[in-house]
């Protein structure tokens, strides 16, 4: 054992030969923290049985060779973190199994190892917050006594959750989609994305100048110098009491009229204060939440965010630290934030964007003849809806609005009547799914993910049940669409993982790569071969764009060479 510089719990001895022969290993990496950009790994515990474990440093040749072996299944709680820390230590490992993701699929709300072990195993495990001293001051034996039980409990927890996944037919979505996605997201987090500090500085200065000008205007139109117009309460008093504008709705707490931007946008023509206030709020949000926040999070010119599998009930990916999905895309000012995300010299950013994926999914699931025909003919679906609904192709924006209400529900009774009149197959499918949802009390995606919806309980009011049905249908469409995005990412990663092309961002239906210019055309070929799919009733297509930054990109047609497009 001395040859491996390892320790076991309380010095007990394990058979190394049995460990090496095992096809399944449980591991748990200990590090200085959870930020992939700044924190570093210390070591890891490893075991093949639930009774005992080794703890070793990150560079032990024998134990890291076991982790590198992709024929072995590695079980780890929050496996994305463990894989990323191994990669930072120069160890690339795939074939993961994550009980945390399994618990998420089983709809557990609290996913910490300590809570899950308590719930499913009725046992205790010491958490990081309970330690009496920091990890860096612990001896190897103390680390073994702390981290070893983690590996043991992870193995026992997986044995328990595996049975539950099988019982609910969730093994397919777990092993075919969620687990192969772990290396993709891990690489994305380890790579980080380059962000230009100078661009952020210039944007910040520009936004501050405009905010100052707007403040002067707000004080003039409100007649109250010195008022904090950034305060919703103060703004509410000015808009509804001082200016006497019509009240839309109250805040959730009911203590004052709301200054919700969606409502204010409908009355912005009633007083000069309103459009000025909306622009002021947008600039303040962009400056504080993005320009300043991104500058604080820069590490050697890159941002290392988190891409999460376990934060949404539909299965869509989310991002945090920073939340890139909240960067506004529909306003010119919001899109300018994207220009700060750049490619290093000699490289470009390449963006893959699934085209109308949720409408394609609605067509596939509903089998509406008109939707299917429009997509198969390659028609502009928003224009087609405008023609069908209003007999006027020029009303495309209204057609687009109707289409999104088709996916997310809502809208007026007249809008719903109109939609179901032009797409009767969707109405038939929606009515059928409403019955299925109310009977099952859960929604299921094409991949097999389940979302329990309490609002579907028969004892709820008709209004609550109706909302539950909308949530269920939205989950079936959004969740199944998210699975197609994940499958595309997985297919592409299998072909690109050994290249110099780096996945750096995933936001909504977009995936962004950082690609050296010398291999762009090779990568383009892989992208066109892996992301589009004909597995649905209509082709699922993509748009591809290339540029120096995320905000200014040029579209590349399928089969077009990048150099020829310059």
How would you explain this protein's 3D organization?
- The structure is a single chain.
- The protein is built from 20 helices and 17 strands.
- It is of the alpha+beta class and 566 residues long.
- The chain has 4 domains: 2-168, 2-Layer Sandwich (Nucleotidyltransferase, domain 5); 197-297, Taq DNA Polymerase, Chain T, domain 4; 320-356 and 484-565, Alpha-Beta Plaits, CATH 3.30.70; 358-479, Orthogonal Bundle (DNA polymerase, domain 1).
- A 6-stranded mixed beta sheet has the order 1-4-3-2-5-6.
- Strand 5 (73-75), helix 3 (79-88) and strand 6 (96-97) form a beta-alpha-beta unit.
- The chain is globular and about 80 Å long.
- The model is unreliable at 1-5 (pLDDT under 50).
Look up the CATH topology of the largest domain: Nucleotidyltransferase, domain 5
Count of structural domains: 4
Work out the helix count.
20
CATH class of the largest domain: Alpha Beta
Give, in spatial order, the strands making up the sheet with the most strands.
1-4-3-2-5-6
Low-confidence stretches: 1-5
Measured between the Cα atoms of the first and last residue, the distance is 60 Å
Strand count? 17
Q: Bin the helical content.
A: 40-55%
Major pleated sheet: 6 strands, mixed
Summing up helix and strand content along with how strands pair, one would put the structural category as alpha+beta
Cα shape: globular
Q: What would you give as the CATH superfamily of the largest domain? A: Ribonuclease H-like superfamily/Ribonuclease H
Rg over C-alpha atoms, rounded to the nearest angstrom: 27 Å
Average residue pLDDT: 92
What CATH architecture of the largest domain would you give? 2-Layer Sandwich
| Strand content range | 5-15%
């Amino acid at each position: 054992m001395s040859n491996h510089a390892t320790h076991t719990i309380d010095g007990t001895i394990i058979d190394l030969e049995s460990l090496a022969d095992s096809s399944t290993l449980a591991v748990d990496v200990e590090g200085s923290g959870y930020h992939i950009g700044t924190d570093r790994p210390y070591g890891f515990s490893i075991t093949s049985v639930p009774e005992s474990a080794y703890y070793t440093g990150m560079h032990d040749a024998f134990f890291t060779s076991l982790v590198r072996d992709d024929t072995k299944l590695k079980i780890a709680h929050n496996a994305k973190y463990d894989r990323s820390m191994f990669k930072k230590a120069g160890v690339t490992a795939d074939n993961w199994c994550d009980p945390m993701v399994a618990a998420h699929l089983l709809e557990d709300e609290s996913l910490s190892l300590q809570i899950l072990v308590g719930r499913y195993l009725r046992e205790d495990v010491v958490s990081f917050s309970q330690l009496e001293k920091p990890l860096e001051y612990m001896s190897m034996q103390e680390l073994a006594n702390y981290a070893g039980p983690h590996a043991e409990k992870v193995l026992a927890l997986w044995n328990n959750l595996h049975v539950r996944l099988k019982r609910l037919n969730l093994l397919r979505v777990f092993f075919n989609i969620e687990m192969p996605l772990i290396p993709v997201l891990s690489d994305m987090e380890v790579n980080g994305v380059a962000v230009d500090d100078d661009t952020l500085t210039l944007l910040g200065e520009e936004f501050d100048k405009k905010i100052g000008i707007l403040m002067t205007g707000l004080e003039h139109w409100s007649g109250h110098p010195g008022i904090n117009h950034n305060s919703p309460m103060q703004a509410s008093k000015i808009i509804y009491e001082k200016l006497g504008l019509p009240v839309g709705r109250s805040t959730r707490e009911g203590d004052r009229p709301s200054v919700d931007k969606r409502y204010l946008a409908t009355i912005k023509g009633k007083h000069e204060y309103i459009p000025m206030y909306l622009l002021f709020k947008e600039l303040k949000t962009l400056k504080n939440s993005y320009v300043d926040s991104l500058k604080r999070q820069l590490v050697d010119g890159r941002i290392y965010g988190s891409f999460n599998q376990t934060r949404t009930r539909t299965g869509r990916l989310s991002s945090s630290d920073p939340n890139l999905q909240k960067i506004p895309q529909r306003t010119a000012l919001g899109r300018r934030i994207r220009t700060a995300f750049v490619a290093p010299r000699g490289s470009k950013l390449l963006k893959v964007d699934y085209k109308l994926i949720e409408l394609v999914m609605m067509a596939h699931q509903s089998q509406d003849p008109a939707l299917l025909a429009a997509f198969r003919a390659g028609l502009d679906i928003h224009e087609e809806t405008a023609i069908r609904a209003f007999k006027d192709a020029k009303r495309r924006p209204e057609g687009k609005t109707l289409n999104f209400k088709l996916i997310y529900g809502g809208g007026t009774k007249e809008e719903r009547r109109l939609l179901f009149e032009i797409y009767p197959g969707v109405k038939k499918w929606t009515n059928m799914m409403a019955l299925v949802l109310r009977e099952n009390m859960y929604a299921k995606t094409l991949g097999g993910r389940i979302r329990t919806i309490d609002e579907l309980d028969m004892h709820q009011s008709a209004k609550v049940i109706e909302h539950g049905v909308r949530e269920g249908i939205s989950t079936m469409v959004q969740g199944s669409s998210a699975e197609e995005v994940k499958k595309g990412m997985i297919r592409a990663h299998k072909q690109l993982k050994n290249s110099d092309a780096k996945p750096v961002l995933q936001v909504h239906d977009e995936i962004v790569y950082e690609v050296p210019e010398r291999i762009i055309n090779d990568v383009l070929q892989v992208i066109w071969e892996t992301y589009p799919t004909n597995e649905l009733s209509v082709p699922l297509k993509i748009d591809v764009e290339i540029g120096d930054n995320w905000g200014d990109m040029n579209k590349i047609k399928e089969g077009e060479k990048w150099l020829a497009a310059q």
